[in-house]
Fold:
Amino acid sequence: MEIAGLLGILGYFSIEDIRQRSIRIVPLLLAAIMGLVFHLFFGRISIWNLLGGLGVGAVMYMISVISNERVGKGDAMLLAVTGIYLGFWDNLLLLWMASLLTMAVGLVAVIFFRKGKHYELPFVPFVLAGYVIMLLASKGGLS
Structure:
């Protein structure tokens, strides 16, 4: 259920990020509340692990502020939400995988499609792709 919920959340925000280049805060807050309620009932990860997962998003938010939003604040808040579901280490792995995927597509865009260094890509679809890769690489796959 948790996997389906997070896939749905990431799918929804991927479409929103592609279409609008932004993420609305109200649905994001609802996703966070849903994750906290899920955690209260099933408690798969410790509270410290959950707080660490939120911390990944908080650090990304600080980077967004410092870098004058070269990293989107919505992306950072989404990573805080994924941290509620995944915990610290899995959220850090998700960020790493999404960043690598974004870099690879960015390189292709620059080299083959002659995009400039300031070309912007929506980040959430890469977060979704990274999560799917994590699920496929796990022992149970998508089951």
User: Anything to note?
Assistant: Helices lie at 2-20, 25-42, 47-66, 73-86, 88-112, 124-137.
